[in-house]
Amino acid sequence: MIIGVPKEIKNNENRVALTPAGAKELVKRGHTVYVQHNAGEGSGFTDAHYTLAGALVLASIEEVYGVAEMIIKVKEPIEPEYKLIKEGQLLFTYFHFASYEPLTKAMIASKAVCLAYETVEKTDRSLPLLVPMSEVAGRMAIQKGANYLEKPLGGRGILLGGVPGVLPAKVLILGGGIVGTQAAWMAAGLGADVTIMDVSLQRMRYLADVMPANVKTMMSNEYNIREMIKDADLIVGAVLIPGAKAPHLITQDMLKDMKQGAVVVDVAVDQGGCIETCKPTTHENPTYVIEGVVHYCVANMPGAVPYTSTLALTNATLPYAIQLADKGWKKAAQENPELIPGLNIINGDIVFEGVAQAFNAPYVPVNKYLVD
Ligand SMILES: NC(=O)c1ccc[n+]([C@@H]2O[C@H](COP(=O)([O-])OP(=O)(O)OC[C@H]3O[C@@H](n4cnc5c(N)ncnc54)[C@H](O)[C@@H]3O)[C@@H](O)[C@H]2O)c1
After folding, report:
1. 60 in helix, strand or coil?
2. pTM of structure
3. Spacing, Cα 247 to ligand 1 middle (Å)
4. I want to staple 27 with a disulfide (CB 3.0 to 4.6 A). Which of 54, 236, 247, 364 is the partner?
């Protein structure tokens, strides 16, 4: 198959969808890989790295879209890319269709096959191509939180791990899923006094089993949260209710009970945030202060560490990309049911029910396209 890897053109997006190692795997299997000039630059991969791996470098995005049967990307196509997409072309990338109607309409009009990273789903209902970014964001939440607790950055001037003779900082993590667990490992490793709150007893049993002694678990409810925030130095928001807005577990009035210079890192900001006062911020201007509490609410945290994020993402996407290249999307989906929910739009039909519902548009069951 002919595979194209364009350079991401979305503002401040430095990830790339295929590493030189991934290109080598595909080339080894007889596929042709075209990479746009400088596509890997932001993640630390040069054109020469790709050439050495057997890929071919093309000068322009038009050439990449023009030649490829499958486009592998990171972010959803943006307006200037719409006209480059061809009928029947397979696009394998994050789309998040339900949040943006113009993209959905453009992909319907293109008659391309849109396979979305975010809806590829394992039989246990986990989302294997979302997990890596949650892992990155969870780990980064503690790095950022520790940083903003420093006095010159507006924090209360406490070191997460304390020192001998001085107590460590208290870290409260709301939500013990992927983000929360990774945050807890990092905070615990730095020596902080960590509490994870979740509503799932089963999840907390697991966490209590695997976490070190400086991590405790506690049921998430309003009473407990009100108690815990009084002492917290750093709070990480990591709650997710699939398909819904995050619940506001900390409301504006509750901030008054918190310590001056405490920090909240609301990773769940992309779903509306679990702290009421959180509004999306950017890496250029990541924080603001309300009631003396520093708020860090960057909606695309992994974007700040493109090297790690690219490797983490491509570790997860490459096995699927190989199946798609080897078999074509139809046979690959027939043989691997994890790919089926990833199919969102085919030949102008919306085949993912949630997207059709979001826009009150006609829905065509994906099976129409999977029968021989
Ligand atoms: N800002 C970013 O850059 C970024 C990056 C990656 C992920 N995220 C977001 O982080 C959030 C968490 O993602 P995840 O992968 O960890 O999700 P997850 O599904 O793995 O974990 C969510 C956890 O929240 C728990 N939960 C639900 N209701 C709760 C409540 N009332 N109180 C406490 N816990 C509750 C669930 O039981 C679950 O354990 C998502 O909104 C995700 O989109 C943001």
Report:
1. coil
2. 0.91
3. 11
4. 54
